Task: structure prediction
Amino acid sequence: MPPDLIYSEKAGSMRIGRRLLWAGLILAGIAAATLLFFMFENAEQSGNSPSNLISINSIQTLTAIANSSSLPTSTAALTATDSINIISNTETAFPAITATVSPFPTLTLTSPTSNVTQTNTAPVSPSLTASPTSMQTPSPHSLDVPVGRGQLFIIHKVINGENLSTLADTHSTSLEAIMAVNYQLNVPIKIDAVIIIPLQKKDTQGLSIFEPYQVTATQITAEALANELDTDSLLFKYVNDLKDGDLLHQGDWILVPR
Result:
């Protein structure tokens, strides 16, 4: 080809290359402006007005560069239009939320006041001085108190509605055992009759015969009473759980071996 045509083609290629370079720079500038716009628009909504001026100045500078370039008018207009569209399509960012932490409130507790006034009109009674009463422990030689060593017995006074069978069931014994230990027992038994009941003894093996007796003397030793009742002194003290020299008093109930 002729040299002048080759030269013209290279010149045209160089001009096209410059235009593409300018177009790339403009697009990069628009992208940077868009990024700055997003950043400074958020800052504007936070109350930072200088950033708004920076964003507007950047857009004006880019527009001036586009107008002064050697690109065709249609290209510059297209670029400006695209820039406006890009800016107009940007979403509005939500304003930044600033949390204000307030100190804990001070709680003041006030006791409720009552409007009701209660007046105690009850007379004040003097303090009572309790005089301790001695708990009287029943004598070991009273009615219905177990007595004896090994085998226990009670001396019981019959009340209304009782008979030998009911008494045997109550004290886990038997009719035969009750009859075996009582001296000259009258059957059927009558009210106020005093009888001897072996406790928890079903059979009659090893049982002796006894007679219930109530002491009439004011005070008497076990040995003296045994001699008075004409009974064995050792057996008398054994079945009545007495020791040598123990005293019996008026009203005591004892077992007299027969």
Observations:
- The chain has seven helices and six strands.
- Residues 127 and 190 are 52 Å apart (CA to CA).
- Strands lie at 153-157, 194-198, 210-214, 219-221, 247-249, 253-257.
- Residues 48-55, 69-94, 124-134 have pLDDT under 50 and may be disordered.
